[in-house]
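Reviewers of the previous submission asked for a worked example of the structure-prediction workflow described in the proposal, so we include one complete record here. The input consisted solely of the amino acid sequence. No template or homolog information was supplied to the procedure at any stage.
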Amino acid sequence: MKRIAIIGSGISGLSAAFTLEEKRRAGVPVEYVVFESSPRLGGVLVTDHVDGCLIEAGPDSFLTEKPWAADLCRQVGLADQLIGSNDADRKTYILVKGKLVAIPDGLMFMVPTKILPTVFSSLFSFSTKLHMAREWFHPPRKADADETVASMVERHYGSEMVDRLADPLLSGVYGGEASQLSVRAVLPRFAEMEAKHGSLGRALLAARRKMPSAANAPARPLFTSLKDGMQQLVDAVVARLSAAALRTSTPVQSIQPQTGGWLVSAGYASDHFDAVIVATPAQAAAALLQSASANLASELGAIQYTSSITVNLGYDQQVRSSLPPGFGFLVPHSEGKQMLAATFVHNKFPHRAPEDRALLRCFVGGARNEQALQAPDEEILRVVREELRQIIGLTAEPRFARVYKWRGAMAQYGVGHLDRLERIERLRQQLPGLALAGNGYRGIGVPDCVRSGANAAGEALSAIGFAQSPQIVAS
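From that input alone, the workflow returned the following structure tokens.
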């Protein structure tokens, strides 16, 4: 019987464990142990129920176009629990000079695909609109080296587009800054489009024309979630695993390669495993692997992370009727606020709040405001409520408020990230039986983490002599 250790029980580690459990049930002679330092499994996927509302402490959904999370939901019996976002009411605003301005129709990330809505939008100055017009004539350009998202966007559309769209959008996803994040790692399709077409606008329209006609097919929702919240996925996966294999409140101090395997030391006990999957944040993985490979630890430790704070606020019908329609708003750094964004949850996923309730989810922290993590919850609530008053005139006392802090939760894919991953892979292969999983490598969303965990399980199985299924690769 071969044994595999999984260190970390976020959705990446749980996906690895589920993959191994399925192999075990199919007759592969393998067993696994999941080590988790905290008292609960599931990492940032935490759902609470308060005052008739469903509130998410971490991610509230995942991108529908990335299939791996939905596939896992179906595998664990949650197919009938999958729900889509209410895209009929999808509208997002940007705070510009203290006022909310809707993102114009046809704008895909920051690329205009419809001319008139962009021309008549007050989101952009005349100068930026001229940039957009000239962008259609950009010649193909294959970059010799990686660059920041800000550099690429500014080259195509000017600095205002960076400030008002690229930066707040990326801040919402990565908690990072466009001036620090890698184009090749964060927006690889844009890098490919620029190399082939030059103009990003022309490239997107060309891609649309190549898509098969879907005139009779209903449009898929942008976001997918679960009826009873994202923790439903964690609970369903854990229910499929062997209870004896799950060790919570058991931090791992070190992992050491041995002849024919690995020695995993947790607490006062050490145990031998044939392979090990490290599914922790990259910097925690670096600490665990320092004695096994200083070079690998150095590369892993260089992957930076930012922290995140989510603030859930519940209000009554009067507030609900006074709020703007749509999914919420984003706040550029230039507006001088601590809030990064706010989601009107009752519009995005209507079933998550009764019809006479408003449910808001606000975000604080990120790369520019790590110190917010040190503030007391009361101070964070005060700041968020004051900024909601300034932005949307919301002065009502909330029925309830919940603050969730996530230290070092979001990996930052800086310039050169993909080159670093190549070096990490070469060094990892020098340590037989080691696999890595998590959001520090090739995607930070829930689907990317699911794929990462499943692939790591396949690598571990292959390393100990079992046929490896084809890896789930990024689309």
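The chain has three domains: 2-42+232-303+414-463, 47-88+306-412, 107-210. We consider this example representative of the routine output the project will generate in years two and three.
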